[in-house]
Amino acid sequence: MRCGLSRAQHRGPWFCWPHHCCTGTRQLFVEMADRMVADGWRDAGYEFVCIDDCWMAPTRDGQGRLQADPKRFPSGIRRLADYVHSKGLKLGIYSDVGKKTCAGFPGSYNHYDLDAQTFASWGVDLLKFDGCNSDSLDLLAEGYKRMSLALNRTGRSIVYSCEWPFYLRPPNYTEIKQYCNHWRNFYDVYDSWSSIKSILDWTALHQDTIVKIAGPGGWNDPDMLVIGNFGLSRDQSVTQMAMWAIMAAPLFMSNDLRHISPEAKRLLQNREVIAINQDPLGKQGYQLFKVQQEGWLWERPLSDLAYAVAVLNQQEIGGPQNFTFSLTWLGHGLACNPACSIRQVLPASRDWGVYSWLSSLSVEVNPTGTVLLTVQPVL
Protein backbone atom coordinates (compact mmCIF):
# COMPACT_ATOMS: atom_id res chain seq x y z
CA MET A 1 0.00 0.00 0.00
CA ARG A 2 1.25 3.48 -0.83
CA CYS A 3 0.41 6.95 0.35
CA GLY A 4 1.68 10.25 -0.91
CA LEU A 5 1.68 13.50 -2.88
CA SER A 6 1.26 13.08 -6.60
CA ARG A 7 -0.33 15.50 -9.05
CA ALA A 8 -0.54 15.53 -12.82
CA GLN A 9 1.13 18.93 -12.94
CA HIS A 10 3.38 18.26 -9.97
CA ARG A 11 4.61 15.48 -7.76
CA GLY A 12 3.60 14.78 -4.26
CA PRO A 13 3.83 12.52 -1.28
CA TRP A 14 1.76 9.09 -1.45
CA PHE A 15 2.32 5.44 -0.04
CA CYS A 16 2.44 1.45 -0.31
CA TRP A 17 3.75 -1.29 1.85
CA PRO A 18 5.18 -4.12 -0.28
CA HIS A 19 4.85 -6.55 2.64
CA HIS A 20 1.06 -5.91 2.61
CA CYS A 21 0.49 -5.62 -1.14
CA CYS A 22 -0.85 -9.15 -1.58
CA THR A 23 -2.44 -9.55 1.84
CA GLY A 24 -4.01 -6.15 2.54
CA THR A 25 -7.75 -5.88 3.01
CA ARG A 26 -10.25 -3.05 2.77
CA GLN A 27 -9.91 -2.56 6.51
CA LEU A 28 -6.18 -1.91 6.17
CA PHE A 29 -6.74 0.85 3.61
CA VAL A 30 -9.48 2.37 5.75
CA GLU A 31 -7.13 2.42 8.74
CA MET A 32 -4.41 4.10 6.69
CA ALA A 33 -6.80 6.76 5.41
CA ASP A 34 -7.80 7.44 9.01
CA ARG A 35 -4.14 7.65 10.05
CA MET A 36 -3.34 10.05 7.23
CA VAL A 37 -5.91 12.47 8.58
CA ALA A 38 -5.43 11.98 12.32
CA ASP A 39 -1.62 12.00 12.28
CA GLY A 40 -1.11 15.04 10.07
CA TRP A 41 -0.07 13.35 6.81
CA ARG A 42 -2.88 14.95 4.81
CA ASP A 43 -2.10 18.38 6.24
CA ALA A 44 1.56 17.92 5.28
CA GLY A 45 0.48 17.31 1.68
CA TYR A 46 0.21 13.54 1.39
CA GLU A 47 -3.01 13.00 -0.51
CA PHE A 48 -3.12 9.54 -2.10
CA VAL A 49 -3.82 6.12 -0.66
CA CYS A 50 -2.77 3.65 -3.35
CA ILE A 51 -3.49 -0.03 -3.84
CA ASP A 52 -0.68 -2.04 -5.44
CA ASP A 53 -0.73 -5.40 -7.24
CA CYS A 54 -2.89 -8.38 -6.10
CA TRP A 55 -6.11 -6.45 -5.42
CA MET A 56 -7.98 -8.19 -8.25
CA ALA A 57 -9.91 -11.42 -8.39
CA PRO A 58 -8.13 -14.10 -10.44
CA THR A 59 -10.55 -13.62 -13.37
CA ARG A 60 -12.62 -10.85 -14.92
CA ASP A 61 -16.40 -10.81 -14.48
CA GLY A 62 -18.98 -11.94 -17.03
CA GLN A 63 -18.80 -8.59 -18.85
CA GLY A 64 -15.02 -8.75 -19.09
CA ARG A 65 -14.42 -6.17 -16.36
CA LEU A 66 -11.80 -6.28 -13.66
CA GLN A 67 -13.21 -7.09 -10.24
CA ALA A 68 -11.81 -6.84 -6.75
CA ASP A 69 -10.94 -9.89 -4.68
CA PRO A 70 -14.30 -10.59 -2.97
CA LYS A 71 -12.73 -11.75 0.29
CA ARG A 72 -10.32 -8.84 0.76
CA PHE A 73 -12.56 -6.13 -0.74
CA PRO A 74 -16.08 -7.48 -0.17
CA SER A 75 -17.77 -4.13 -0.83
CA GLY A 76 -15.67 -3.40 -3.92
CA ILE A 77 -13.35 -0.57 -4.88
CA ARG A 78 -16.06 2.05 -5.38
CA ARG A 79 -17.03 1.92 -1.71
CA LEU A 80 -13.38 2.16 -0.66
CA ALA A 81 -12.89 5.16 -2.97
CA ASP A 82 -15.93 6.84 -1.45
CA TYR A 83 -14.48 6.39 2.03
CA VAL A 84 -11.05 7.68 1.02
CA HIS A 85 -12.65 10.70 -0.69
CA SER A 86 -14.73 11.41 2.44
CA LYS A 87 -11.45 11.96 4.27
CA GLY A 88 -10.29 14.55 1.75
CA LEU A 89 -7.89 12.05 0.15
CA LYS A 90 -7.56 10.33 -3.23
CA LEU A 91 -7.36 6.70 -4.26
CA GLY A 92 -4.75 5.12 -6.52
CA ILE A 93 -4.91 1.66 -8.07
CA TYR A 94 -2.63 -0.71 -9.98
CA SER A 95 -2.83 -2.49 -13.32
CA ASP A 96 -0.44 -3.76 -16.00
CA VAL A 97 0.06 -3.15 -19.71
CA GLY A 98 0.47 -6.88 -20.39
CA LYS A 99 -1.75 -9.93 -20.28
CA LYS A 100 -1.06 -10.44 -16.57
CA THR A 101 0.22 -8.27 -13.76
CA CYS A 102 3.65 -8.91 -12.27
CA ALA A 103 1.97 -11.07 -9.61
CA GLY A 104 -0.06 -13.03 -12.18
CA PHE A 105 -3.47 -11.35 -11.98
CA PRO A 106 -5.45 -10.17 -15.04
CA GLY A 107 -3.62 -7.44 -16.97
CA SER A 108 -5.14 -4.72 -19.15
CA TYR A 109 -3.93 -5.97 -22.55
CA ASN A 110 -6.78 -5.64 -25.07
CA HIS A 111 -8.99 -4.15 -22.32
CA TYR A 112 -7.53 -0.64 -22.10
CA ASP A 113 -10.74 1.33 -22.72
CA LEU A 114 -12.86 -0.97 -20.59
CA ASP A 115 -10.40 -0.85 -17.69
CA ALA A 116 -10.05 2.93 -17.89
CA GLN A 117 -13.83 3.29 -17.83
CA THR A 118 -14.02 0.88 -14.90
CA PHE A 119 -11.43 2.80 -12.90
CA ALA A 120 -13.18 6.10 -13.61
CA SER A 121 -16.56 4.66 -12.59
CA TRP A 122 -15.02 3.57 -9.29
CA GLY A 123 -13.70 7.07 -8.57
CA VAL A 124 -10.00 6.18 -8.96
CA ASP A 125 -7.64 9.18 -9.00
CA LEU A 126 -4.32 7.57 -9.97
CA LEU A 127 -3.29 4.55 -12.01
CA LYS A 128 0.08 2.88 -11.56
CA PHE A 129 0.56 0.99 -14.84
CA ASP A 130 3.21 -1.72 -14.67
CA GLY A 131 5.06 -3.31 -17.59
CA CYS A 132 5.15 -7.06 -16.97
CA ASN A 133 4.07 -9.82 -19.37
CA SER A 134 3.97 -7.90 -22.62
CA ASP A 135 4.90 -9.96 -25.69
CA SER A 136 7.06 -7.30 -27.34
CA LEU A 137 8.39 -3.78 -26.85
CA ASP A 138 6.11 -2.59 -29.66
CA LEU A 139 3.05 -3.95 -27.86
CA LEU A 140 4.30 -2.47 -24.58
CA ALA A 141 4.65 1.00 -26.14
CA GLU A 142 1.26 0.70 -27.86
CA GLY A 143 -0.35 -0.36 -24.59
CA TYR A 144 1.03 2.57 -22.62
CA LYS A 145 -0.19 5.00 -25.27
CA ARG A 146 -3.61 3.38 -25.55
CA MET A 147 -4.19 3.44 -21.79
CA SER A 148 -3.19 7.12 -21.62
CA LEU A 149 -5.70 8.00 -24.32
CA ALA A 150 -8.34 5.78 -22.73
CA LEU A 151 -7.93 7.51 -19.36
CA ASN A 152 -8.32 10.91 -21.03
CA ARG A 153 -11.50 9.76 -22.77
CA THR A 154 -13.14 8.97 -19.43
CA GLY A 155 -13.31 12.67 -18.61
CA ARG A 156 -11.99 11.99 -15.10
CA SER A 157 -8.67 13.44 -13.96
CA ILE A 158 -6.52 10.36 -13.29
CA VAL A 159 -2.77 10.66 -12.68
CA TYR A 160 -0.95 8.20 -14.94
CA SER A 161 2.17 6.57 -13.44
CA CYS A 162 4.17 4.48 -15.94
CA GLU A 163 6.96 1.91 -15.88
CA TRP A 164 7.46 2.37 -19.61
CA PRO A 165 11.08 3.66 -19.80
CA PHE A 166 12.39 0.95 -17.47
CA TYR A 167 11.88 -1.58 -20.27
CA LEU A 168 13.55 0.50 -23.01
CA ARG A 169 17.22 1.11 -23.82
CA PRO A 170 17.28 3.96 -24.60
CA PRO A 171 13.84 5.42 -23.83
CA ASN A 172 12.32 8.20 -25.91
CA TYR A 173 11.51 10.51 -23.01
CA THR A 174 9.92 13.17 -25.21
CA GLU A 175 7.35 10.62 -26.35
CA ILE A 176 6.89 9.15 -22.87
CA LYS A 177 6.17 12.57 -21.38
CA GLN A 178 3.39 13.08 -23.95
CA TYR A 179 1.52 10.15 -22.38
CA CYS A 180 2.64 9.72 -18.74
CA ASN A 181 2.62 12.00 -15.69
CA HIS A 182 5.56 10.24 -14.05
CA TRP A 183 7.64 7.24 -14.91
CA ARG A 184 10.04 4.74 -13.40
CA ASN A 185 13.53 4.47 -14.90
CA PHE A 186 15.38 2.02 -12.67
CA TYR A 187 14.98 -1.10 -10.55
CA ASP A 188 12.61 -1.31 -7.58
CA VAL A 189 13.82 0.28 -4.37
CA TYR A 190 14.54 -1.95 -1.38
CA ASP A 191 14.81 -1.11 2.28
CA SER A 192 18.61 -0.87 2.21
CA TRP A 193 21.34 1.71 1.80
CA SER A 194 22.82 -0.15 -1.17
CA SER A 195 19.51 0.23 -2.99
CA ILE A 196 19.29 3.98 -2.28
CA LYS A 197 22.90 4.46 -3.35
CA SER A 198 22.37 2.54 -6.60
CA ILE A 199 19.40 4.77 -7.48
CA LEU A 200 21.44 7.92 -6.84
CA ASP A 201 24.37 6.57 -8.85
CA TRP A 202 22.11 5.68 -11.79
CA THR A 203 20.43 9.08 -11.68
CA ALA A 204 23.76 10.93 -11.69
CA LEU A 205 25.08 8.77 -14.53
CA HIS A 206 22.03 9.50 -16.71
CA GLN A 207 21.26 13.05 -15.60
CA ASP A 208 22.16 14.64 -18.93
CA THR A 209 19.26 12.70 -20.45
CA ILE A 210 16.62 12.68 -17.72
CA VAL A 211 16.92 16.04 -15.93
CA LYS A 212 15.97 18.21 -18.89
CA ILE A 213 12.75 16.29 -19.60
CA ALA A 214 11.34 16.60 -16.06
CA GLY A 215 8.90 19.39 -15.34
CA PRO A 216 5.22 20.19 -14.78
CA GLY A 217 3.16 17.38 -16.25
CA GLY A 218 5.92 14.77 -16.29
CA TRP A 219 8.42 13.62 -13.68
CA ASN A 220 11.18 11.05 -13.22
CA ASP A 221 10.24 8.62 -10.44
CA PRO A 222 13.15 7.04 -8.51
CA ASP A 223 10.65 4.88 -6.60
CA MET A 224 9.36 4.88 -3.04
CA LEU A 225 10.59 6.43 0.15
CA VAL A 226 11.44 3.57 2.52
CA ILE A 227 11.96 5.84 5.52
CA GLY A 228 10.26 4.49 8.63
CA ASN A 229 11.10 0.83 8.04
CA PHE A 230 14.18 -0.99 9.31
CA GLY A 231 16.89 -0.93 6.64
CA LEU A 232 18.09 2.68 6.79
CA SER A 233 19.96 4.45 9.55
CA ARG A 234 18.91 7.93 10.62
CA ASP A 235 21.56 9.53 8.39
CA GLN A 236 20.58 7.36 5.43
CA SER A 237 16.93 8.29 5.92
CA VAL A 238 17.90 11.96 5.86
CA THR A 239 19.82 11.30 2.64
CA GLN A 240 16.84 9.70 0.93
CA MET A 241 14.46 12.51 1.93
CA ALA A 242 16.94 15.22 0.93
CA MET A 243 17.89 13.66 -2.39
CA TRP A 244 14.29 12.88 -3.39
CA ALA A 245 13.59 16.60 -2.84
CA ILE A 246 16.60 17.56 -4.96
CA MET A 247 15.47 15.19 -7.72
CA ALA A 248 11.91 16.65 -7.78
CA ALA A 249 10.70 13.08 -7.25
CA PRO A 250 7.17 11.93 -6.52
CA LEU A 251 7.19 11.28 -2.76
CA PHE A 252 5.81 7.75 -2.53
CA MET A 253 6.01 6.36 0.99
CA SER A 254 6.35 2.63 1.57
CA ASN A 255 5.91 2.12 5.31
CA ASP A 256 3.39 1.30 8.01
CA LEU A 257 1.84 4.46 9.43
CA ARG A 258 0.51 2.53 12.41
CA HIS A 259 4.01 1.79 13.69
CA ILE A 260 6.23 4.54 12.29
CA SER A 261 8.67 6.17 14.71
CA PRO A 262 8.23 9.81 15.74
CA GLU A 263 11.65 10.59 14.22
CA ALA A 264 10.70 9.12 10.83
CA LYS A 265 7.35 10.90 10.94
CA ARG A 266 9.02 14.28 11.59
CA LEU A 267 11.38 13.72 8.68
CA LEU A 268 8.67 12.67 6.23
CA GLN A 269 6.42 15.56 7.28
CA ASN A 270 9.17 18.20 7.21
CA ARG A 271 7.42 21.16 5.58
CA GLU A 272 10.64 22.81 4.36
CA VAL A 273 11.78 19.66 2.56
CA ILE A 274 8.35 19.12 1.02
CA ALA A 275 8.35 22.76 -0.14
CA ILE A 276 11.65 22.16 -1.93
CA ASN A 277 10.28 18.98 -3.50
CA GLN A 278 7.13 20.78 -4.65
CA ASP A 279 8.82 24.02 -5.74
CA PRO A 280 6.66 25.59 -8.48
CA LEU A 281 9.60 26.27 -10.82
CA GLY A 282 9.49 22.53 -11.43
CA LYS A 283 13.14 21.90 -12.29
CA GLN A 284 14.91 18.67 -11.31
CA GLY A 285 18.26 18.92 -9.53
CA TYR A 286 21.52 17.38 -10.64
CA GLN A 287 24.93 16.33 -9.39
CA LEU A 288 27.68 18.92 -9.80
CA PHE A 289 30.94 17.19 -8.85
CA LYS A 290 32.94 15.58 -6.10
CA VAL A 291 34.06 17.56 -3.07
CA GLN A 292 37.26 16.06 -1.80
CA GLN A 293 37.29 12.26 -1.97
CA GLU A 294 33.91 11.06 -0.67
CA GLY A 295 31.61 14.09 -0.94
CA TRP A 296 29.17 14.79 -3.73
CA LEU A 297 27.64 18.21 -4.34
CA TRP A 298 24.13 18.43 -5.85
CA GLU A 299 22.00 21.49 -6.59
CA ARG A 300 18.47 22.23 -7.71
CA PRO A 301 17.20 25.56 -9.10
CA LEU A 302 14.20 26.91 -7.18
CA SER A 303 11.77 29.77 -7.60
CA ASP A 304 12.88 33.38 -7.08
CA LEU A 305 16.49 32.63 -8.13
CA ALA A 306 17.05 30.40 -5.09
CA TYR A 307 18.80 27.01 -5.02
CA ALA A 308 18.61 23.88 -2.93
CA VAL A 309 22.04 22.36 -2.30
CA ALA A 310 22.80 18.88 -0.99
CA VAL A 311 26.20 17.71 0.28
CA LEU A 312 26.26 13.90 0.42
CA ASN A 313 28.98 11.94 2.23
CA GLN A 314 29.29 8.55 0.51
CA GLN A 315 31.84 7.28 3.02
CA GLU A 316 30.36 4.34 4.92
CA ILE A 317 32.83 4.10 7.80
CA GLY A 318 34.47 6.51 10.22
CA GLY A 319 33.09 9.73 11.60
CA PRO A 320 31.78 13.05 10.29
CA GLN A 321 33.77 14.73 7.54
CA ASN A 322 34.09 18.36 6.53
CA PHE A 323 33.57 19.26 2.89
CA THR A 324 34.60 22.72 1.72
CA PHE A 325 33.61 24.34 -1.57
CA SER A 326 33.40 27.79 -3.11
CA LEU A 327 29.99 29.42 -3.43
CA THR A 328 31.02 30.48 -6.93
CA TRP A 329 30.45 26.82 -7.90
CA LEU A 330 26.69 27.11 -7.36
CA GLY A 331 24.15 28.12 -9.96
CA HIS A 332 26.74 28.61 -12.71
CA GLY A 333 28.36 31.22 -10.49
CA LEU A 334 25.12 33.19 -9.99
CA ALA A 335 23.49 31.59 -6.92
CA CYS A 336 25.38 33.80 -4.47
CA ASN A 337 26.22 36.83 -6.62
CA PRO A 338 26.74 39.31 -5.05
CA ALA A 339 25.62 37.73 -1.76
CA CYS A 340 23.27 35.07 -0.43
CA SER A 341 21.50 33.91 2.71
CA ILE A 342 22.07 30.24 3.57
CA ARG A 343 19.78 28.09 5.66
CA GLN A 344 20.26 24.45 6.68
CA VAL A 345 17.11 22.37 6.28
CA LEU A 346 18.41 18.87 7.12
CA PRO A 347 19.41 17.09 9.26
CA ALA A 348 18.24 19.98 11.49
CA SER A 349 17.05 23.46 10.54
CA ARG A 350 19.11 26.53 11.35
CA ASP A 351 20.14 29.77 9.68
CA TRP A 352 23.77 30.06 8.61
CA GLY A 353 23.67 33.77 7.82
CA VAL A 354 24.74 35.88 4.85
CA TYR A 355 27.74 35.02 2.67
CA SER A 356 29.49 36.90 -0.12
CA TRP A 357 30.05 35.56 -3.62
CA LEU A 358 33.72 34.79 -3.00
CA SER A 359 33.10 32.92 0.26
CA SER A 360 33.76 29.25 0.82
CA LEU A 361 31.39 27.01 2.72
CA SER A 362 32.48 24.19 5.02
CA VAL A 363 29.85 21.53 5.71
CA GLU A 364 30.18 18.68 8.22
CA VAL A 365 28.38 15.54 7.08
CA ASN A 366 28.04 12.15 8.77
CA PRO A 367 28.92 8.97 6.84
CA THR A 368 26.11 8.12 4.34
CA GLY A 369 24.40 11.32 5.48
CA THR A 370 23.42 14.50 3.69
CA VAL A 371 23.22 18.16 4.64
CA LEU A 372 20.45 19.94 2.74
CA LEU A 373 20.72 23.73 2.36
CA THR A 374 18.78 26.52 0.68
CA VAL A 375 20.63 29.43 -0.88
CA GLN A 376 18.61 32.63 -1.29
CA PRO A 377 20.06 35.60 -3.20
CA VAL A 378 20.56 38.88 -1.35
CA LEU A 379 20.23 41.55 -4.02
From TrEMBL:
* Record localization: Lysosome
One of the protein's GO biological processes: lipid metabolic process
UniProt domain Alpha galactosidase A C-terminal: residue ranges: 282-369
Q: What is its main location?
A: other
The record's listing under InterPro entries reads: Aldolase_TIM, GH, Glyco_hydro_27, Glyco_hydro_27/36_CS, Glyco_hydro_b, Melibiase/NAGA_C
Give the record's keywords alphabetically: Disulfide bond, Glycoprotein, Glycosidase, Hydrolase, Lipid metabolism, Lysosome
Would you name any one GO CC term? lysosome
Identify one Pfam family in the record. Answer: Melibiase_2_C
**UniProt EC number:** 3.2.1.-
Q: Which CDD domains match?
A: GH27
| A GO MF term | alpha-galactosidase activity
Gene3D superfamilies associated with the record: Aldolase class I, Golgi alpha-mannosidase II
Please give the subunit comment from the record: Homodimer.
Record's family? Belongs to the glycosyl hydrolase 27 family.
Q: What is this protein's record name? A: Alpha-galactosidase
**Phylogenetic placement of the source organism:** Eukaryota, Metazoa, Chordata, Craniata, Vertebrata
